[in-house]
Amino acid sequence: MSYVHSDDDRLGRLTQFRKDLSAEVQRQIGEEFSIFQDREDIRWGQNWKKRIEESIDEVTFLIPIITPSFFRSPYCRDELQRFLEREKELGRNDLVLPIYLSTILHTATT
Hints:
This protein is mostly helical. It has 4 helices and 2 strands. It has one domain (5-100). It is 44% helix and 4% strand.
């Protein structure tokens, strides 16, 4: 899962989404379905950039969480570009599964 950390708000909604999606896919296919998320899958002291690059080279799908800040992040753009190159090498064009996230602001009316 590729996303901007600040989009995983203080409630951890993207982290919860990843857990829910993983559990639902597991129920559907009957086997474990791990979704890489840096906050969960990079150990303390590990080279985070290298670990993310390794994971991009290993995963079957890329799930970018598209928000206004996603394309402003050089790290997210690099992750997407690296995966698109891998996808092309595999002769595929259907391995990026974007999630478009929009935020609705609620204002109190008095």
